[in-house]
Amino acid sequence: MADLVTFQLPQSVSGSESDVALGLTMIRAWRRDGIFQLRMSEAQLEKAQRAFESSRRFFRQPLEDKARCVSDSTYSGYVASGEELTAGEADYSEIFTVCKDVPLTDARVQARWPCHGPAPWPDETYRRDMKEHTDELGSTGERLLRLVALGLGLEVGALTALTRDGWHHMRVLRFPARSTTATRGIGAHTDYGLLVIAAQDDVGGLYIRPPVEGEKRRRNWLPGESSAGMYEHDEPWTFVKPVPDVLTVFPGDILQFLTRGYLLSTPHKVALNTRERFAMAYFHEPHFEACVRPLTTPGPDEYIHYGSHFTNMFMRCYPDRITTQRILDEDRLTTLAWLREDAVLRTAPVEDLPLPLHRAAS
Ligand SMILES: NC(=[NH2+])NCCC[C@H](N)C(=O)O
Ligand SMILES: O=C(O)CCC(=O)C(=O)O
Ligand SMILES: [Fe+2]
């Protein structure tokens, strides 16, 4: 396969003619290749390098030290090799998940919303380096979404309306070298939000599945349609060659849903290599309470409550983690169902509201 297309992001995206042209070219690259590259700015590069250094330093520590970085109220923190499930099989990735760091005093934590709480940071340097890198990618994600909106023929702010206080998160990953018994890094899957923005070292191991004419793709947000494990052993898969100083970008489940499959959530998988490998996958996401509806003619029951999708997916990844146990023990799924109901009512087309609300709204 030829090299991936590489773009450079403008400092800001206003909706100019050149912004529209760039957005269209990005969409074309995704629909053909399923992925494109972004050249990193000097500032991005520095922050990414510092985050990689902190990651190497963290993963070098003894297992018992790393294993202390867990939380029973969030999915932030350490995931040991073999702990995460993808399509029912253990992944060999070792991970530190960075989710929104919400203080105990926050009303959402007090009200026991699922997935909300403080992050169990290993130390202050690690916290700072990961925050600077994710904040930088937050700005990248916003500019990308503005270009994507333009490329889809929408208002420049049509997609970023969903990402105010977005539930952005990141997986800081280490893959061990392969052994005679272990070759799987992470099984084939799609990720859950709008954009996946990833960085990797020079080792290699990531593969993506480009769009395939006529191929049925699952809707990962529906209970009966997990995309995990799909087409894992069927070609075509594109090796994502490590290239210095670039990020790779592809769509997640929410972009597939919004566009009714015009853009597909890019399936990808990771194979172990002969050397250990480090990567960071950042996810640019809607607000936890967002109720997302397709961009064209949504029916009343066509929506994804993003916080429910996120919670469902993380419970599926970590069925035995204390966070999952606590969600079940404290019946936090009922709280989540209330949040979903609220979100659905807030975004329902007026004619679909129950009659008393219908009157109040009109
Ligand atoms: N938390 C993640 N994004 N994990 C990516 C791997 C796939 C995940 N285990 C799943 O079943 O969907
Ligand atoms: O290792 C990579 O490059 C990607 C990891 C990944 O797919 C994930 O963390 O969801
Ligand atoms: Fe992924």
Automatic annotation (TrEMBL):
Molecular function GO terms recorded: 2-oxoglutarate oxygenase/decarboxylase (ethylene-forming) activity; metal ion binding
Tree of life domain: Bacteria
Name this polypeptide is given: 2-oxoglutarate-dependent ethylene/succinate-forming enzyme
Pathway membership: Alkene biosynthesis; ethylene biosynthesis via 2-oxoglutarate
Keyword Transmembrane helix applies: no
EC number, as in UniProt: 1.13.12.19, 1.14.20.7
The entry's keywords: Ethylene biosynthesis, Iron, Metal-binding, Oxidoreductase
One GO term of the biological process aspect: ethylene biosynthetic process
Similarity-based family: Belongs to the iron/ascorbate-dependent oxidoreductase family.
Pfam families in alphabetical order: 2OG-FeII_Oxy, DIOX_N
UniProt cross-references to InterPro entries, sorted A to Z: DIOX_N, IPNS-like_FE2OG_OXY, IPNS-like_sf, Iron_ascorbate_oxido_reductase, Oxoglu/Fe-dep_dioxygenase_dom
Known catalytic reactions: 2-oxoglutarate + O2 + 2 H(+) = ethene + 3 CO2 + H2O; L-arginine + 2-oxoglutarate + O2 = guanidine + L-glutamate 5-semialdehyde + succinate + CO2
Stretches assigned to the Fe2OG dioxygenase domain: 166-286
